[in-house]
Design goal:
Chains A, B: Keywords: Oxidoreductase. Chains A, B: InterPro entries: NAD(P)-bd_dom_sf, P5C_Rdtase_cat_N, STEAP_metalloreductase. Chains A, B: This is Pyrroline-5-carboxylate reductase catalytic N-terminal domain-containing protein. Chains A, B: GO terms for molecular function: oxidoreductase activity. Two copies of one chain form a homodimer. Chain A has nine helices and eleven strands. An eight-stranded mixed β-sheet of chain A has the order 3-2-1-4-5-8-9-10, sandwiched between helices. In chain A, strand 9, helix 8 and strand 10 form a beta-alpha-beta unit. The longest helix of chain A has 18 residues. At the A-B interface, strand 7, strand 10, helix 9 and strand 11 of A face strand 7, strand 10, helix 9, helix 10 and strand 11 of B. Strand 11 of chain A pairs antiparallel with strand 11 of chain B.
């Protein structure tokens, strides 16, 4: 499948590498066409790189792995035409560390990043997922033993099913994928990141995850 | 131990009943001295009831089981003199359902209810805990099988140890009690309630809890 991964940070790098390893045709997108990190990643993975718009243009699925505070700008650069009808997998978090620790979770008027993206690009099909864990766990859930969960939020059931399929290819079991409902539920998972940051401090490792136990 | 439970709602009722059952001398506090729910509870449990101030006056531990949006008013009514030096167990959530579902989690400027209480009553020793689960699970963790967690946040280590002791008397194991650090970490657990509300909708039961798995 042709997949664009927007973002050249650790999260984008990890997801793009995993997707390329699974045989997908991945293009890493960044602000500029000559981003060194994207160039290096593409060379190492026999994959492509380009601007946000170039990456999104041919993609069937677009992964937003940019920081939540710049995601709207990144998708705007990708362009509404290049996002129309496509599944946008939003793994971002609106964390603002500018005032130190603990970071503020920025959700203007309580609205999640995912909803902001969906409102700006109503013809895209935004699905929030994977933002509640470390990037290594995102693409290899077996790093955390036993039962733990990944959440799905979105307004488009077909898009959520496509994302669930991607998650299964990463190693997530059906019993681990928890559909929270429509995209307003992205508010809940974006707020969960505050606890993640605290636990990262308390546990001293990123190899943990949340489980819902009943 | 002499314990005041402020709040006559479901949460206050459940906690007060459990504490009375464990042999503590419990006083249920409410806005007025003749609150019917408090009166009925006291009669049924051979316990006491009174105003917030009356309840707090003799207590060694004060449990804030009022709604997060009115907690500051409730503790103000209890009175700084009656809170001085005491452990205040804050189990509240600042949920605002006035605009429907999903509720807004009210934390002005990102500051938790627990921190607001601590700032208003600097001589009290506020500990945030138990706010991330249904009240039935709070006092009987065995309702949820297997590994799951209760969080602790607070600036006073001795107060946190006293609250951990209370939690153990409710049935919580040492491996379930997760100390997140100082009281700013209450922000993280107060924000978790948004996900709890979503999961309550998705799972159709309150008998679930969060686990941190590593």
């Amino acid at each position: 499948m042709k997949i664009a991964v927007l973002g050249t940070g650790e999260v984008g790098h990890t997801i793009a590498t995993r997707l390329a390893g699974l045989g997908h045709e991945v293009t890493m997108g960044s602000r500029s066409a000559d981003n060194p990190a994207a160039k290096e990643w593409a060379a190492a993975n026999a994959a492509a790189h380009g601007t946000f718009a170039e990456a999104a243009a041919d993609a069937e699925i677009v992964v937003n792995a940019t920081g939540g505070l710049v995601s709207l700008a990144a998708l705007t650069a990708a362009g509404a035409d290049n996002l129309r009808g496509k599944v946008v997998v939003d793994v971002s978090n609106g964390l603002d560390f500018s005032e130190g620790f603990p970071p503020k979770i920025v959700t203007p008027d309580g609205v999640s990043v995912a909803e902001q993206l969906q409102r700006a690009f109503p013809e895209a099909r935004v699905v929030k997922t994977l933002n509640t864990m470390n990037n290594a766990v995102m693409v290899d859930p077996s790093r955390v033993p036993g039962h733990h969960n990944v959440f799905l939020s979105g307004d488009d059931e077909t898009a959520k099913a496509a994302v669930a399929e991607l998650l299964r290819s990463f190693g997530w079991g059906d019993d681990q994928i928890l559909d929270l409902g429509d995209l307003t539920s992205a508010r809940a998972v974006e707020q969960l990141v505050g606890l993640w940051v605290r636990l990262y401090g308390a546990l001293g490792t990123g190899d943990f995850n949340f489980a819902v136990v009943k």
